[in-house]
Amino acid sequence: MDALTRSQQDYLKALYVLGPEGERVAPSRLAQRLAVSAPSVTHMLQRLSAEGWVRHAPRGAAQLTARGRRVAVDMVRRHRILETFLVRVLGLDWSEVHADAEVLEHHISDRVLDAIDRLVGHPEEDPHGHVIPDRTGKVRSRTLRSLAALPPGASATVREIRETESERMIRWREAGLVPGAAVRMIEVRGAEDLYEVEVAGSRIVMGRQGLEGVLVEAGRPSRTRAVGRARPRRTRRSRSTA
Questions:
Q1: Domain at 1-139: CATH architecture
Q2: Is pTM beyond 0.70 here?
Q3: Which pLDDT band, with edges at 50, 70 and 90, does 144 fall under?
Q4: Nearest partner of 156 among 127, 189, 197, 203, judged by Cα
Q5: Which CATH superfamily is domain 145-218 in?
């Protein structure tokens, strides 16, 4: 691991998560993601730019250099393997492991990470459905869309949960909106901003904001049971605008 502070590693990882295809990321998005002030973001980006980790013009968006991307992808790999370990081996809740992995990823050696990776069977995805980069830094690409973008009558499979807030993930887990779940859009009530979705035989009703962060892929679910998969709540309907 390059000699970077924990804060610098967090910035590089955030730049990758917000711009996985190399997109430029606005400082305001970084500040929101990392829960820091705008001046702090500006100061750190200047420092990372001077050291060759990012490309950044004053008051402009930032982009990882090839060197910065390698570190960022390594940090993402660490985080996602650790989340998988925390769920599969330690039995921690699917919705609560993000913060723990955030701490651990900075403090384990490559040797220990490799051992954990072997222990959990070299997973390709973490408990939230995110693709885990391989040892060379290669990331498998997928074509995903927001669940809220499905037209009425369309079926899909939940593939990824893009969220770090525990309360929202708990709601999705209870509703059955977890990686691997089969879903079908029943009805879109645009005037009310409500979406009726069928999940494993049950129907739920949520607003667009409540579905934001649930990404799906057209087609039938795979036979492999996703890490963190939970049974849907058996109530007939639920409302949420979270």
A1: Orthogonal Bundle (1.10)
A2: yes
A3: very high
A4: 197
A5: Ferrous iron transport protein A (FeoA) (2.30.30.90)
